[in-house]
């Protein structure tokens, strides 16, 4: 049971990253599953009520800020929801580290996609719609990849992970 519980968060993060890469969408169902998973895990590991409150507050703060960024068209709506749901798992203590890692990984991802877009699209690559979309300079960047990767990097420092491995 403990191993399955430990893998829940990374599995959902991998799903989010692959979904964003292949479709440029992060579904509401995925985000709701992440939020529901947090609620279950918080009960399983008996997260103290004060700590639970801080996790909820961290997620709410990131949701408000991220939706402001979405309103300014800086990020997608799925990215905003994923960042908030991920922060819910990490709490305030890891939020800054998570967001810095997401920004750095997002910068690297953006540079990689810009590099891809600077070379001609080969017929072999053009067979894959998701690669064609990534190559298109009018398309955005699947930032959910960076958000998910940053979450997985930080996850082992989270209270939930630590309590599951204790």
From TrEMBL:
Keywords of the record: Cell membrane, Membrane, Transmembrane, Transmembrane helix
Membrane topology: Multi-pass membrane protein
Domain of life, per lineage: Bacteria
InterPro entries, sorted: Preflagellin_Peptidase (IPR052218), Prepilin_IV_endopep_pep (IPR000045)
Prepilin type IV endopeptidase peptidase domain segment(s): 7-111
GO cellular component, one term: plasma membrane
Protein localization: Cell membrane
Bilayer-spanning residue ranges: 26-44, 56-76, 96-119, 140-161
GO molecular function, one term: aspartic-type endopeptidase activity
Protein name: Peptidase
Organism: Devosia aurantiaca
